[in-house]
Design goal:
The complex is a heterodimer.
Chain A (H helix, E strand, L loop, with lengths): L2 H31 L1 H22 L8 H30 L7 H4 L10 H29 L2 H27 L3 H24 L9 H31 L1
Helix pairs in contact in A: 1-2, 1-5, 1-6, 1-7, 2-5, 3-5, 3-7, 3-8, 5-6, 7-8
Chain B lengths: L1 H18 L4 H19 L7 H20 L3
Classes of the chains: A mainly alpha, B mainly alpha.
Chain lengths: 241, 72
């Protein structure tokens, strides 16, 4: 493979990792809280990102990404834990409740107008991951003297992963509501944990792969708490009988 | 003036809901865990496990408290 091919492939693969995280957040938030606000939030994130890139250009390398990771990660973690907890309690109490229970369960989602929670979650996900992709482009591109190819590789990654996410939209929407809340809560908690700690300077042994480890740990914990909650509910029902 | 005040209250309410939610003890514990992790990292001590541990522990504590409130 030529030097240009290596730059193209490297930026494509490195940007794909960040784009997957970006698409997972927008997809999860859209399916759980509504597509309109989630997509407007994502579009706003891209708009701010485009302006930032246009203004800073190659000076992007000087952006303090660490503090940004701490703030965005901590906010995602704090909000994600709320959904994680509610998801555990709802799956334990009602099992896999379907979409028909949406109006009963999601009293915090506005019936009309903008859902600012969905907007902010998507906006932050797109902005942070987009900035990371921009940093990859600048660092790889400048180091290899192939900034143009680096931009093409990253743009291709965002388009391919975005299209894959769009194709999965129908499938995600069919996931039962209570389970979806638990899944999105687990995802936000895992990403929030990873980003906030990375921003604080923690070095993860397997780099981005440790997000998968966090997902497994939080997922198994949720399963354990669901079993414990169900036992509590069962014992109370037996006592009442 | 009243419009500005209601806007400020709305933003504050949104931020409180977003960050703290229905259990302030979880939010406080996570913020403390992040702060302690920051200090430990500064001392070159590996502390990646602290925040996940506190998150898992506080989720259990919060679920237990919520169950007791519901008489479970």
């Amino acid at each position: 493979m030529t030097g240009a091919g290596v730059v193209l492939l490297t930026t494509f693969l490195a940007s794909s990792v960040e784009a997957i995280e970006m698409v997972i957040i927008v997809l999860g938030v859209g399916a759980a809280r509504g597509w309109r606000s989630a997509l407007i939030g994502a579009a706003a994130g891209f708009a701010v990102l485009a302006v930032t890139i246009a203004v800073l250009n190659v000076a992007l390398a000087a952006v303090p990404i660490g503090p940004l990771r701490v703030v965005v990660g901590a906010l995602l973690l704090l909000f994600g834990l709320q959904w994680y907890r509610k998801g555990i309690a709802r799956v334990a109490a009602r099992g896999l409740a379907g979409m028909s229970e949406e109006t009963v369960e999601d009293e915090d989602i506005p019936a009309s107008g903008m859902d600012w929670v969905a907007f902010v979650l998507s906006f932050k996900g797109v902005l942070l991951e987009g900035l990371e992709i921009a940093l990859i482009v600048v660092s790889f591109g400048l180091a290899a003297g192939q900034l143009g190819l680096s931009v093409v590789g990253a743009a291709a990654a965002v388009v391919v992963i975005g299209a894959a996410g769009f194709a999965l939209k129908g499938f995600v929407t069919r996931i039962p509501r209570s389970l979806l809340q638990l899944i999105v809560g687990t995802l936000l908690t895992s990403f929030g944990t990873f980003w906030s700690l990375e921003g604080l300077g923690v070095s993860w042994p397997q780099s981005d792969l440790d997000i998968v480890l966090l997902l497994v740990v939080y997922g198994l914990t949720a399963a354990t708490y669901i079993v414990l909650e169900r036992r509590r509910i069962h014992h109370t029902a037996l006592k009442a009988a | 003036m009243r419009l500005v005040a209601s806007g400020v209250v709305g933003v504050a309410r949104f931020l409180y809901f977003f960050v703290v939610g229905d259990d302030w003890t979880v939010a406080l514990a996570i913020l403390l865990a992040l702060a302690v992790t920051g200090v430990l990292v500064g001392e070159h001590i590996s502390a990646w496990w602290l925040v996940p541990f506190v998150a898992i522990l506080m989720t259990g504590v919060s679920l237990g408290r919520s169950a007791r409130k519901r008489g479970l």
